């Protein structure tokens, strides 16, 4: 999970987890905060992590390429949006359907 990124400009999943936990400060925290305002994918990932806390990487027996299944489904839904034509509300509905089975 630590190396997954939607694009090269996106913070890694581990950086987002550290940001959420308050382990990133200063300019790096401001950079991630600004990115979250502009990137719906990363913002949704942080929302997911805030609702479903992740195990500490040092305790978890995972590989760098693993993603939580619900987050993977969310990523697929967001990345399948045709040319960004869908509104944010529709993406949020997909997120809720995937994560909360609504």
How would you describe the overall organization of this protein?
With 102 residues, the protein is mostly helical. The chain has 5 helices and no strands. 56% of the residues lie in helices and 0% in strands. The protein is globular and about 35 Å long. The two termini are 26 Å apart.
Cα-based radius of gyration, to the nearest Å? 14 Å
User: Average pLDDT value?
Assistant: 76
Helix content: 55-70%
Strand content: under 5%
Distance from N terminus to C terminus (CA atoms, Å) equals 26 Å
Content-based structural category: mainly alpha
Give the SSE layout.
Elements: H1 13-20, H2 26-38, H3 40-51, H4 69-79, H5 88-100
Helix pairs in contact: 1-3, 2-3, 3-4, 4-5
The gist of it:
This protein starts with 12 loop residues before the first helix and ends with a helix. 56% of the residues lie in helices and 0% in strands. The protein contains 5 helices and no strands.
């Amino acid at each position: 999970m630590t190396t997954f990124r939607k694009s090269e400009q996106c913070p890694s999943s581990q950086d987002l987890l550290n940001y959420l936990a308050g382990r990133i400060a200063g300019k790096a925290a401001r950079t991630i905060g600004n990115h979250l305002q502009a990137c719906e994918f990363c913002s949704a990932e942080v929302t997911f992590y805030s609702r479903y806390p992740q195990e500490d990487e040092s305790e978890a027996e995972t590989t760098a390429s693993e993603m939580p299944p619900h987050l993977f489904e969310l990523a697929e839904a967001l990345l399948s949006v045709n040319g960004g034509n869908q509104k944010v509300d529709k993406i949020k509905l997909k997120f809720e359907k995937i994560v909360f089975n609504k």
